[in-house]
Amino acid sequence: MSQKAKSVDSPLLTAENIKKHFPVETGIISRFLGDEEFVRAVDGVDIELREGETVGVVGESGCGKTTLGRTVARLYEPSDGSIHFDDQEITDVSGDRLKKLRKNIQVIFQDPMSSLNPRKTVGEIVAKPLEIHDLASGDEKRERVIELFEEVGLQESHLDRYPHEFSGGQRQRVGIARALAVEPKLIIADEPVSALDVSVQAQIINLMKRLQAEYGISYLFIAHDLSVVKHISDRVAVMYLGKIAEKGSTEEIFENPQHPYTRALMNSIPRVDKKRSRRDILLEGTPPSPSNPPEGCPFHSRCPEFIGDECVDREPELEQVSGDSGSEDSSHVVACHWQEKSVEERQEQDPFN
Amino acid sequence: MTREPTTERGRLRVRGFDADATTDVDWSPDRGGRTASRRARAWRRFSGNRTAVAGLVVVVALLVLAVFARPIEVAGVTVQPFALAPYAPATTDVAPASQPPSLAHPFGTDWAGRDVLSRVLYGGRYSLAIGVVAVALGVGVGVPLGAVAGYVGGWVDEAIMRLVDVLYAFPFLVLAIALVAVFGQGFWKLVLALVVVGWISYARLVRGEILRVKEEEYVLASRALGVPDRSILARHVVPNAIAPVVVQATLDVGTVVLSAAALGFLGLGLPPGTAEWGSMLSASRDTLMQGQWWVTVFPGLAIFLFVLSINLVGDGVRDAIDPQGDSRREAR
Fold first, then answer.
1. Is residue B260 part of a domain?
2. Cβ–Cβ of B216/A114 closer than 8 Å?
3. Which residues between 54 and 73 in chain A have a beta carbon less than 8 angstroms from any beta carbon of chain B?
4. B28 falls within a domain
5. Where in the sequence is the domain holding B244, given as residue range(s)?
6. Helical H runs in chain B?
């Protein structure tokens, strides 16, 4: 699938230097005094997505991956940066143009219960986007909804039921049918399988892959489950504290991780076989608060490969992984001071050697 | 039926279990037919609650009695010809004044020789109308304001909720008394006073619920679909936030009737001599000491009966649409 993605040159979605800062709710008095505090949920992220491609975004809870997805989908107003979709600037479109954009970018949510209005039948829920965008009405609409239901593996007889009558997997299928109804080019899948059990996860992932193959949909796939991301993504971005730590093709990220945080994440995948056992890297503690991120490298407070003052003083830029570390992919970038070290020094210190 | 004696230890034995003989149970969720709507399920729960149904029966009975107490004329045309009350409420000297209950006048007569039974029946019109109209208007004002405050947030929220806070700083009845004193007496002025002090509780209640509901992902999902904000608010947010308001409003009908009666008792409600339950209590409080208990007790009983019943109904409604009994939680 990565072959197909590479053949398309102009990206479908380009987001540059995306920032989303949420003001911390403070009292009216401190607001007057100007003591505003911000949570830097997303703090300068570049991401691009080609047609028919799946980009996985991984990271711990609270690293800003959901916020990134919602900002890119224009559900949140970006605090800074620019978003281009289909060669058009969409950073601050509104009104009719935003509505048109909604037709092209759809979202699948994490909690399939909470994302369906409990007072509407699933038929009404899936028909809603058709009404909003004037795509079909009357019998035609009903036919289209039935078609969508069959597409995602539900039956016509389910139309008049309420969301609570379905299992989690079925509800997620309804959510997918709703997103598909407008025939979007891009679907932001925000942890679409995290709330489901493993066997159902596989069904949903396979459904999403089939729909991608049939309709050429691009996915921005947000998840914390690395094995799922590995399975579905062409490229992967690893986020830490609102920033991208490492980005590259799925093979590169999983076979040749360069950032200490990525390595720690890889290490956290439970394995049955001990074949690929590596030196254990255990991350301790929790991520620092995004309203008061550490100076320098955001990861230095927990980094198992901490170098010294440079990590505390200077924030590393995203740099291309140099060829001598075994990388063949020019798009593999990492933000770590280890990249500036000489090859010998790095090999000497490499925890995998 | 013959019983085979147990041949071995243990009372339970599995006999004739044959994997080929068992048929697969159909696990498809199809149960055929449409699912009962939420309203139908809520009604089923409500009708299973005997005290609530009893309350509803009393409330409906009082309503019917009030409506059919005397004929109703609209623009000279009699719309409702029945007269359950034997006398018009204001007719004086239907019998000697201050007569104890008798067959001719089951509730006795008051100081002006008016039939107390007729006045109690007819008085329901005032009390019930004030209760229902004041609560309906209070909901009509409070729910939209609270919904907008909660959904829009920012300075709109700040402005509306600070106004609510200011009104909350006054005791309910004291503020109502002050307003009636300013507006003067009369049915609509009394209703207006009760609405001004009554809408704030709905606004606050709805705002809180809206703040909860608007965080639900289906609201975000609607926005992702491009549903306009006012439609999200009206179709997705408010319907999911309204349940506690329905309960509160039902219970409040009782409170408002009681407040109207209290204002009437203080001589601030309707003009003196009106057959409103509170005013009747007020007018007869001097004669209670002289042993003329019937003039006070019957209107008092009517207030008591109505408020008790409406509270029972309110409790029943709450149980029927309680989020705990909600199908959504059941499914989890």
1. yes
2. yes
3. 70, 73
4. no
5. 43-83+120-323
6. 38-47, 50-67, 116-152, 154-168, 172-183, 187-213, 217-225, 229-231, 238-241, 243-265, 277-288, 293-321, 327-331
Select the residue from A99, A114, A157 to test the B interface by mutation, using most B Cβ atoms within 10 A. A114
- Establish if A316 belongs to a structural domain: yes
**Residue B37 per-residue DSSP state:** P
d(CA B193, CA B182): 10
Number of domain units in chain B: 1
**How distant is the Cα of B206 from the closest Cα of chain A, in angstroms?**
18
pLDDT at residue B203 above 90? Answer: yes
Q: Look at chain A and report how many structural domains it folds into.
A: 1
Binning chain A into helix, strand and coil, the percentages to the nearest 5 are 35, 20, 45
Judged by a CB distance cut-off of 8 A, whether residue A114 touches chain B is: yes
On whether residue B131 sits in a domain, the answer given is yes
Burial grade of A276 (CB within 10 A; 0-12, 13-18, 19 or more): exposed
* Chain B residue at shortest CA distance from A155: B30
Residues of B contacting chain A (CB within 8 angstroms): 29-30, 34-35, 38, 158, 216-218, 220-227, 236, 239-240, 326-328, 330-332
Where residue B251 sits, what CATH number does that domain have? 1.10.3720.10
Give yes or no for residue B7 having a pLDDT over 80: no
Q: Which DSSP category does A318 fall into?
A: P
Name the residue among B221, B326, B331 with its Cβ closest to that of A109.
B221
What whole-number distance in Å separates Cα of residue B231 and Cα of residue B222?
Answer: 9
A75 in reach of chain B (CB within 8 A): yes
pLDDT string in tens for chain A (353-residue length): 444 444 446 789 999 899 988 887 766 666 666 667 788 888 889 998 998 899 999 988 888 889 999 999 998 889 888 999 988 888 888 888 888 889 899 999 988 888 898 888 899 999 999 998 888 888 899 999 998 998 888 888 888 888 888 888 889 989 999 998 988 999 999 988 888 888 888 888 988 999 899 888 999 999 888 888 988 999 999 999 889 999 999 988 888 888 888 888 887 777 666 555 555 566 777 778 888 888 888 888 888 778 878 888 888 888 887 655 555 556 888 888 887 776 666 666 665 55
Host domain of residue A324: 262-353
B161 within a domain of the structure (yes/no): yes
Q: What is the pLDDT of residues B171-190, one digit of tens each?
A: 888 888 898 888 888 889 88
CA nearest to A178 within chain B: B225
Residue A311 in any domain: the answer is yes
Question: CB neighbours of B90 closer than 8 A, spacing ≥ 6?
Answer: B114, B273, B275
Element (H, E) at A163: none
* Whether A129 contacts chain B with CB within 8 A: yes
A94 and B CB contact within 8 Å: no
- Is the per-residue pLDDT at B326 higher than 70? no
Encode pLDDT of A223-256 as tens digits: 888 888 988 999 999 999 889 999 999 988 888 8
Chain A residues whose beta carbon lies within 8 Å of the beta carbon of residue B158: 28
Does residue A305 lie in a domain region?
A: yes
